[in-house]
Amino acid sequence: MNIDTNSLYAQMQSMSLGNSSLQGASFEKMGNNLAMGDSAIPALNKSTSNFGDMLKDAVNNVNDIQKESGAKKIAFEMGDRSVTLADTMVASAKAGIAFDATVQVRNKFVEAYKEIMNMPV
């Protein structure tokens, strides 16, 4: 399978920026290296910082769900009548599912990282 590197890179750029086409981007192929011209689309770090923020928010959300579950467990154990066993079990199940999903996402990231590191250059 022969993939044109310039075309693939251009598609990835346009997808990350939400554009259907790259306007004003010039790419030159020099052997196996890509050199971008002066009019290449900037701000790739902006999208990575947004992804990092999104990932951080997701982990913080899972942490909040686990804290809420822990608080309901403690309240139920202490005899708080406003917290039922059903509420406690539902909160515990939500926390478990959220944590399992987070672990699966982490596993996929590690798997992708290993695959990228094993790619020939």
UniProtKB/TrEMBL annotation:
- Show the InterPro entries listed in the entry: FliE
- Keyword vocabulary terms for this entry: Bacterial flagellum, Cell projection, Cilium, Flagellum
What molecular function terms (GO) are annotated for this protein? Answer: cytoskeletal motor activity; structural molecule activity
Q: Which domain of life is it from?
A: Bacteria
Main localization category: other
Q: Name one GO cellular component term.
A: bacterial-type flagellum basal body
One biological process GO term for this chain?
bacterial-type flagellum-dependent cell motility
Q: Where in the cell is it found?
A: Bacterial flagellum basal body
Does Isomerase show up as a keyword for this record? no
Q: Which Pfam families match?
A: FliE
HAMAP family, from UniProt? Answer: FliE
Q: NCBIfam families from the xrefs?
A: fliE (TIGR00205)
The protein's matches in PANTHER family, at most eight in alphabetical order, are given as: FLAGELLAR HOOK-BASAL BODY COMPLEX PROTEIN FLIE, PTHR34653
Please state which protein family the record places this protein in: Belongs to the FliE family.
Name of the featured protein: Flagellar hook-basal body complex protein FliE
What's the gene? fliE
